[in-house]
Design brief:
The chain is mostly helical. It is built from 19 helices and two strands.
């Protein structure tokens, strides 16, 4: 079943590329949208049938390269299933939003479908080499999205993105090989490596492997100081590309920490947890402070992603202390389950923000905050949707961001009180920068970017734009008001992570 989920988008992409060039663009758009909707329905059905167990479901295990200990092994649990469904949600939103795209529509649709396959493959892989293959292919697909449909400096942004993240993936591969060589018998299977704990009692080797894994995953997350590729990539990427980059690809890094580094290297993770916590706090504060200084809307949103991903890194570092500390089991799982909830929440909200920023750019042809004022008078629906996205992103109660941050801070405070209190400042800084940007763009006297020849038309949010963005905001609201269905799935798997970490 998971094989169908993963490879169906790629199959549709191949069909689209095989069609004659005379086929109208509307056919490609429709095929992309319909296939994405069906895939989301299928993923939702898998989630509904999954239940609340902590183990893997829908497993498929086939010999692939047995002499090298590599297999085709896929499965999902409470950590990966919500991220797989999130991936399907965001790709459907981008399919609806991209009906406005007029350049090379067939290639655009096929490339996003191929990218969806790579993203889903990362989240369902239970073999390190299979994980690496999908991880690397997602970099290639996003490179072409940025280079082919980006803005003026798209080629530079795509090259920077590729070089940074590809270098990170090479470090990741070195870590995978280290785990393989330490295991007896040699294997790349994640479940076998988790059970074996192959580097137990070997602190130097475990530290080196964790360094390789941590570097590769930190680049993808991205964590300060490995974040420098992110603002340029977001600024130059098309809106749909930015939504997928922030909403899905960044989660591959934090998911890798949860799925690989923490359960397979528990001693090393506990030993170096203070370093992880410091990196998380620095990312939170640095991202918020730099975002506060931005005059470009997309760069501002990009730096807030550094802050929000920093919360996740903080929680995963703090979980190393809570894993072995005496106390209530429910409290111990808060940090890990809050990290997963934050991944889902950030994906929904930041995906919506980048799509809304793209809608603003389509009308004004600039992301410069100073070029706009009083936009709510011309586009009240756009202003309302942006207000919801901004308030949800700063962690207002009633939205998914509040649930995630409440779990993270509650689960981290007892273990790392100073770091947690410092990270709370990130909420205040994020609130200040988002509210200031909203006030500057949407409130006050009307001012729009100058248009050559005639006054610029500034329509409100169109139907397909609304169809792409509003469901993301509705889902973020539902998760804020009724988070139990998500938490019932996440918490059992989070408890298993803590069990592995406490060995």
């Amino acid at each position: 079943m998971l094989t169908v989920l993963v490879f169906a988008p790629a199959a549709v992409a191949v069909v689209l590329l095989a069609l004659p060039r005379t086929v109208p663009d509307a056919v490609h758009r429709t095929a992309w949208t319909v296939s994405s909707a069906l895939l989301l329905a299928f993923a939702a059905a898998l989630w509904a049938a999954h239940g609340t167990g902590g183990g893997y479901a829908y497993e498929t295990r086939v010999r692939w390269m047995p002499s090298a200990g590599v297999g085709y092994h896929v499965g999902v649990d409470g950590l990966s299933l919500p991220l797989a469904v999130l991936t399907c949600v965001l790709f459907l939103a981008c399919a609806l939003y991209s009906w406005r795209e007029r350049r090379r529509v067939r290639a655009h649709a096929a490339l996003f479908l191929l990218l969806e396959t790579t993203c889903l493959g990362v989240f369902v892989s239970l073999d390190l080499i299979l994980f690496f293959v999908f991880f690397d292919l997602s970099i290639v697909a996003m490179y072409f999205v940025i280079a082919g449909w980006g803005r003026d400096q798209a080629a530079r942004a795509a090259l920077t993105f590729f070089l940074y993240t590809f270098l990170g993936s090479l470090a990741l591969l070195l870590g995978f090989i280290g785990l393989y060589l330490a295991a007896s018998p040699h294997t790349f299977d994640m479940t076998d490596l988790t059970r074996a704990d192959p580097l137990a009692g070997r602190p130097v080797a475990a530290g080196l492997v964790l360094l390789a894994l941590g570097t590769g995953l930190a680049v993808k997350t991205p964590t300060v100081p490995f974040h420098t590729w992110l603002p340029l990539a977001h600024t130059q990427a098309p809106a749909a590309g930015s939504a997928i980059l922030a909403g899905v690809l960044l989660k591959m890094g934090t998911y890798g920490f949860l799925r690989i580094a923490m359960p397979m290297l528990p001693e090393a993770w506990r030993r170096y947890a203070p370093v992880v916590v410091v990196l998380g706090v620095v990312s939170v504060l640095y991202g918020a402070l730099v975002a506060l200084a931005q005059t470009d809307l997309k760069r501002m949103i990009a730096y807030t992603s550094v802050t929000h991903m920093g919360y996740i890194v903080l929680a995963l570092g703090a979980a190393a202390a809570t894993a072995t500390a005496p106390g209530d089991e429910n409290v111990r799982t808060l940090a890990v389950s809050g990290a997963v909830t934050q991944m889902v929440s950030h994906g929904l909200l930041t995906g919506a923000l980048f799509l809304l920023a793209g809608a603003l750019h389509e009308r004004g042809r600039t992301y410069d905050l100073a070029a706009y004022s009083g936009v709510a008078a011309r586009a009240p629906v756009l202003a309302a949707a942006t207000a919801v996205a901004f308030f949800a992103s700063l962690g207002l109660p009633g939205f998914s961001g509040f649930v995630a941050e409440f779990q993270i801070f509650t689960g981290s405070l007892g273990a790392r009180p100073v770091a947690t209190c410092l990270s709370v400042l990130g909420i205040l800084l994020t609130a200040a920068l988002l509210l200031r940007a909203y006030q500057q763009v949407f409130l006050g006297p009307l001012r729009l970017p100058p248009a050559p020849g005639s006054p610029r038309a500034f329509p409100d949010l169109r139907r397909r734009e609304a169809a792409a963005v509003l469901p993301l905001l509705v889902l973020a609201t539902l998760l804020g008001l009724a988070p139990r269905p998500l938490l019932d799935t996440v918490e059992p798997a989070s408890g298993l992570v803590l069990e592995w970490l406490a060995r």
